[in-house]
């Protein structure tokens, strides 16, 4: 099983969409193995968005990400990184497909509700940046055999 990081950004908190967003990941069948509220400090925001640090919009992005706490989640599932990206939708909310979180609930290109790991940017490294191993939980979930076939579960 693969694991991937999700951050519900400050607009998700301010717009009262935490439950809606987590609900979409739950309904998809992704298993929540870690969850917490935190403030992103300077170092973390700079590391997290290091590819954009020299872009003119970086200052606004940093201010936005630090404007209120965020909710961090680690989700687990088969090919979880791509599954989570598909239901999140394109970066710019107003261009994202209907049915996705951003397509249904966001308009902005910066204020787009969620960060989700990119397969090109070391998803495991992102999980480890936000969570200690002891904050991640391995537990049995009763719906596994209705979410995946035995072949998919390797049984
Ligand atoms: P995604 O979040 O869809 O993986 P990126 O990794 O390209 O997209 O960008 C990370 C985040 O940086 C975006 O979600 C968005 O909040 C912000 N961002 C990206 N491009 C811009 C831009 N041109 N102007 C303002 N903010 C941007």
The tally of helices reads 9
CATH superfamily, please? Nucleoside diphosphate kinase-like domain
Number of DSSP E strands: 4
The figure for the number of domains is 1
Oligomer: single chain
Helix content: 25-40%
The biggest beta sheet is recorded as: 4 strands, antiparallel
**Basic shape:** globular
In spatial order, strands of the major sheet run: 2-3-1-4
pLDDT < 50 stretches: none
Chemical compounds bound to the protein: adenosine-5'-diphosphate
CATH architecture annotation: 2-Layer Sandwich
Mean pLDDT: 96
Structural class, from helix and strand content? alpha+beta
Defining key terms:
4 strands, binds adenosine-5'-diphosphate, 155 residues, globular, single chain, 4-stranded antiparallel β-sheet
Q: How would you describe this protein?
A:
The chain is of the alpha+beta class. It has one domain (2-147): Alpha-Beta Plaits (2-Layer Sandwich). 39% of the residues lie in helices and 17% in strands. The protein contains nine helices and four strands. The chain has a four-stranded antiparallel sheet with strand order 2-3-1-4, sandwiched between helices. The longest helix is centred in the first third of the chain and has 11 residues, at 18-28. The chain binds adenosine-5'-diphosphate. Adenosine-5'-diphosphate (ADP) binds next to loops. The site of adenosine-5'-diphosphate has 9 residues, from loops.
What does the secondary structure layout of this molecule look like, with pairings?
Elements: E1 2-8, H1 10-14, H2 18-28, E2 31-38, H3 42-48, H4 58-65, E3 70-77, H5 80-88, H6 101-105, E4 114-116, H7 123-130, H8 144-147, H9 150-153
Antiparallel strand pairs: 1-3, 1-4, 2-3
Bound molecules: adenosine-5'-diphosphate (ADP).
